[in-house]
Amino acid sequence: MRTEPPNLLIVDDSTAIRKILLRVLNQTGLELGLVLEACDGKEALKVMEGKDISLILSDINMPNMDGLELLRTLRATPQWHDLPVVMITTEGGQARVQEAIDLGATSYVRKPFSADLLRDKLAALLSK
Amino acid sequence: MTQEQSGRVIPLQNEMAEMLFAATQEVFTSMLGSEIEQVPAPEAERSTPFDGVLSLIGLAGALIGNGALVCSEAAARDLSSRLLYAEFSHVDEQVLDAVGEITNMIVGGFKNLLEAHVGTLQMSIPSVIYGKNICTRDSKADVTVSVRCAFAGGEFGLTVRLAAARQ
User: What CATH number has the domain spanning A7-127?
Assistant: First the structure.
């Protein structure tokens, strides 16, 4: 049972999407700890150093290190192996979705998304 | 209904225009809280110099090319306001980022529909240009699909140009 409010990390090269996700997270009504942001996978790994992250929301198409590479790196790192990662991306093709699931994505949300559905999904994941 | 280009079977132009409009409608309904309608496209929209914002995303796979969104400065600010629930008095980094993301979602949605016909396609990240007298030149495309849309904040044009990839 978690006692501290969960820390989250949003990874997206678009500041617009990071802002939208932050807004959706605030609308869940759940008590949140830190909500950190990174513009690509490489920055995400730096931002995560020394932090107790409970959930990552990540885009796939990003410069430097994309979301699938980030996922691959996390799953190969014992500390982050079981960390829930939700992929939020325009890449809705079945092959791409399967690739993300095979790499260990916890859930997959296609952009454009309904804020209500995303809020419910995040609330369910964060309440676990 | 399909047509064959360089040995590849791809949807007809009007079917692709329907896919592009459907993808755009989904973005407006889900993310921008606005209705859109199709309006007649001006002739040769992208070959005439224009003032405003141009957002481009590359596509690659069995077909190569790009998808582009073109709009005025005022329409770009309005689109960004709808996405971010904020007012923008001028085009800044946030507006360019928002227009890039809207283009990303539209072209991504179109790509997802097209992939059912042509197989997996890859998308680049968006490049967004803001300025005056913007001129564009594209290599020869096998298919050019243009859709012009009107919404409460103005109009914007969408164009997808695709050619069969060289083997």
Answer: 3.40.50.2300
